[in-house]
Specification:
The complex is a heterodimer of chains A (about 150) and B (about 450). Chain A is mostly helical. In chain A, about 65% of the residues lie in helices and about 0% in strands. Chain A is globular and about 40 Å long. By secondary structure, chain B is mostly helical. Chain B folds into 3 domains: about 150 residues; about 160 residues, no CATH class; about 80 residues, no CATH class. Chain B is built from 16 helices and 5 strands. In chain B, strands 3-5-4 form a 3-stranded mixed sheet. In chain B, strands 1-2 form a two-stranded antiparallel ribbon. The relative contact order of chain B is 0.09. Classes of the chains: A mainly alpha (about 150), B mainly alpha (about 450).
Chain lengths: ~150, ~450
C-alpha cells in the first residue's frame, strides 16, 4: 500500500465528509449557499447515486486483477481501498437515525428538496420540519463518517 | 510546517502544475474543457483552504481532493494525438456523451468531459463516481486506448462494451439500464446462487469444468459458489456485451471474438477463485442469439452486389458460427429479446443502424481498391457527392472486407494493419465531410 494511503480520509469517506459538511453549513446558514453551489450539486449527485443504487461500481474484482498498471494515475484505487461501502453504510445509518421509518426513496427526496430550497430559495420552498430532518441527517452522516 | 500550511503548499503546487501543463499542445477542444474543469475545482478548494479554522478531518479530505486533481493533470500529458486514433476518439465521445449526461440539483444537465489517453494494456473507460471529488462541476470520463493498437480502429469497436460499463455507473443511464435489462437476464440460470449451482453441475456441463469444480471443493474444503457479487458481475458483463452489440453492430461481435476468444484457452471454463466474467462460450452464444434476433445474421447487401455479397455471406456466417455446446446457452431467445428491447429503450437513437446495400458495397469496394472506405462520387454537374456515413458503418464495412476478402475480386493483398489504417483514414475524412455538411 502506498505511503499516501496512510491518510485516513484520503478516499470516498473524505469526499462524502466535505459534501456533508458543506450541506450542513448551508442549511444552518443559507446566506453562505451561493458560494457552495457546486458542493450542494455534488451532494445531490451523491444522494441520487445512492437512491438509484448505482453507488458501488461493480468492477472491484476486475480492478484487483490488473488495474495497477492501467492509468493508475487516475487514482484508480480499488473500490475497497476507497471505502465506498462505508459511505453507503454511513448514509443508511444516517437516514435511519433522521427519518426513522420513512422509506429510503422518500427520505432522500426530502433531503434533495431541502438542498434545492437552500441553493435557490427564490424558486423552491420547504417546511422547517424538513430542514430540521435534513440537518439531522447531515449531522448524523458526519458522525458516521468520522467513526468509520 | 503545520498540516494547514502543508495543505496550502500542496494547493500552490497543484495550481502551478496545472499552469505548466498548458505549455504543451494537446487535443485542441478537450484540453480547454479539461483545464477549465481542473481550474474550477482548484478555485472551489481554495475557498476552503483560505479558511484559517480548518479541522484536521477537512484538511485530510481536501488533500485527497488535491491529490486527485494532481493525478488528473498528469493524465493530460498522456493524451498525445499520435498515440491513438483521435478521429475514432471523437466519434466515441459523441456516442458516450448522451449516456453519461446527468441531472443537476436545480434542473439542467451536465455533460461529462471525455478525456482520451494512450495506455499500455487494454481497453478501458473510467467514469468518475459520485464520491471521487467534492469540488467537481462536470465529471471526467477517462478513455484508455491500448497504445500498441493505436492504428487498429476495427478492434476499437470493443469500446461498445466499455461504454456499457461507464453507462451502468452513471446515475441516470445506469439506473435505467439496470431496470430494463436485469429482469430479463435473471429469470433462469442467473436467478440466484442455487440456479447457478444447478447449471454448473448439470449432467451436460463440460467435463473439464466438473473436474475443476471437484478440485476446488477438495482444495477449499467447500463447494464452489458463485456469490451474489460475482453473479452481479456476470450480469453486468453480459449487459455490457449486449450494449456493445447494439451500439456498434456486427463490428462489435467481430472485435469481441478477435480480442476475447484468444485469452480463453478453454472457452467453457472460468476463473474459480475470482469469477468476475462468465465463460467466453456463454458470452459468444448470447451474442450470436442476439445477432439473430436483431436480424444482423442476414446479409445487408443484395445478390446484385456480386462479390461483395459473397464476401458478406462469408462474414456473417463466420461471425455467427457457434461451436459451443448447448450447456453454454444460459438465456432463452425470449429472455434476450426482452433484454434487447429494454436496452433499446435506453439507448434509443444510439442503436446501430446498418447501411443500405449500396452504401455497404461501395465502402467495401473502396477498401478493395486500397482507398479509405467513404462514400464518394461526382454528380451530373461534376460536383463531388458528400455523404454523411456513420463511423460504425465504416467499421462494419472494414470487418466485412477483412473476414470476407477471399471472396472479393480482385483478391486483396491488404494486411490487417493496412486495412485498419485505411479505415482510420476514412474516419478522418468522414469527420471533415461531416463538418462541411454541418457548416
Amino acid at each position: 500500500m502506498p505511503i499516501m494511503a496512510a491518510h485516513a480520509q484520503n478516499d470516498a469517506r473524505g469526499t462524502a465528509w466535505l459534501l456533508a459538511s458543506a450541506a450542513q453549513s448551508c442549511i444552518a446558514d443559507p446566506s453562505s449557499a451561493p458560494k457552495w453551489q457546486d458542493a450542494l450539486n455534488n451532494t445531490y449527485r451523491l444522494l441520487e447515486a445512492y437512491r438509484r443504487n448505482v453507488f458501488l461500481p461493480l468492477r472491484k474484482s476486475r480492478a484487483r486483477q490488473g488495474a495497477r498498471d492501467d492509468a493508475e494515475m487516475l487514482t484508480l484505487a480499488l473500490t475497497n481501498e476507497r471505502h465506498l461501502s462505508e459511505v453507503r453504510e454511513a448514509i443508511e445509518y444516517a437516514l435511519a437515525a433522521s427519518f426513522v421509518s420513512a422509506p429510503k426513496e422518500e427520505a432522500v427526496k426530502t433531503i434533495e428538496e431541502v438542498l434545492r430550497a437552500v441553493a435557490a430559495p427564490q424558486r423552491f420552498q420547504v417546511s422547517e420540519e424538513d430542514k430540521v430532518k435534513a440537518s439531522h441527517f447531515f449531522k448524523e452522516l458526519l458522525r458516521q463518517l468520522t467513526d468509520r | 510546517m503545520t498540516p494547514l500550511e502543508f495543505l496550502r503548499e500542496e494547493f500552490r503546487n497543484v495550481d502551478r502544475a496545472l499552469e505548466e501543463t498548458l505549455r504543451y499542445d494537446y487535443g485542441p477542444e478537450q484540453s480547454k474543457d479539461f483545464y477549465i474543469e481542473c481550474a474550477g475545482r482548484l478555485s472551489r478548494i481554495k475557498l476552503e483552504v483560505d479558511n484559517d479554522g480548518l479541522d484536521r478531518q477537512t484538511i485530510a479530505a481536501l488533500r485527497g481532493d488535491l491529490n486527485y486533481i494532481a493525478a488528473l493533470i498528469s493524465l493530460i500529458e498522456r493524451s498525445h494525438l499520435g498515440e491513438f486514433s483521435w478521429p475514432f476518439a471523437d466519434d466515441l465521445r459523441e456516442l458516450a456523451k448522451p449516456l453519461l449526461r446527468e441531472q443537476n440539483l436545480l434542473g439542467g444537465q451536465s455533460e461529462p468531459i471525455i478525456h482520451v489517453v494512450a495506455d499500455a494494456p487494454g481497453y478501458r473507460i473510467r467514469y468518475e463516481d459520485a464520491v471521487r471529488s467534492a469540488s467537481s462541476r462536470r465529471r471526467f470520463t477517462i478513455v484508455l486506448f491500448p497504445r500498441p493498437l493505436k492504428d487498429h480502429v476495427l478492434l476499437h469497436a470493443i469500446f461498445g462494451h466499455e461504454i456499457g460499463h461507464a453507462a451502468l455507473e452513471a446515475t441516470n443511464a445506469g439506473a435505467l439500464l439496470r431496470s430494463q435489462a436485469y429482469p430479463a437476464l435473471t429469470l433462469n440460470v442467473l436467478a440466484d446462487e442455487i440456479s447457478v449451482d444447478s447449471w454448473l453441475n448439470a449432467f451436460d456441463s463440460p467435463d473439464d469444468l466438473k473436474t475443476e469444480l471437484a478440485a476446488y471443493h477438495q482444495r477449499m474444503g467447500r463447494p464452489f459458489r458463485l456469490t451474489s457479487d460475482f453473479r452481479d458481475s456476470w450480469i453486468h458483463e453480459l449487459i455490457c456485451d449486449l450494449c456493445g452489440l447494439l451500439l456498434f453492430g456486427p463490428a462489435f461481435l467481430a472485435a469481441h471474438r478477435t480480442i476475447i476468444e484468444p485469452s480463453h484457452p478453454n472457452p467453457l471454463k472460468f476463473e474459480l477463485t475470482e469469477p468476475t466474467h462468465p465463460p467466453y462460450a456463454v458470452r459468444h452464444k448470447m451474442l450470436c442469439q442476439a445477432m439473430r434476433l436483431l436480424h444482423w445474421h442476414k446479409t445487408v447487401t443484395l445478390h446484385v452486389e456480386g462479390d461483395v455479397h459473397s464476401a458478406e455471406l462469408e462474414f456473417v456466417s463466420s461471425l455467427t458460427r457457434d461451436p459451443f455446446p448447448n450447456w453454454a446457452k444460459v438465456f432463452s431467445e425470449q429472455e434476450i429479446d426482452s433484454a434487447i428491447h429494454g436496452l433499446k429503450s435506453v439507448l434509443s437513437e444510439l442503436v446501430y443502424a446498418p447501411p443500405s446495400s449500396g452504401t455497404l458495397a461501395k465502402l467495401v469496394r473502396r477498401l478493395n481498391r486500397r482507398l479509405p472506405p467513404i462514400v464518394d462520387g461526382i454528380d451530373s454537374i461534376d460536383k463531388p457527392i458528400l455523404v454523411s456515413t456513420d463511423f460504425r458503418q465504416i467499421l462494419h464495412a472494414g470487418w466485412l472486407f477483412w473476414d470476407g476478402r477471399k471472396q472479393l475480386e480482385p483478391q486483396s493483398e491488404l494486411d490487417f494493419l493496412k486495412t485498419n489504417r485505411l479505415c482510420n483514414q476514412a474516419l478522418l475524412q468522414q469527420r471533415a465531410i461531416n463538418e462541411f455538411l454541418n457548416a
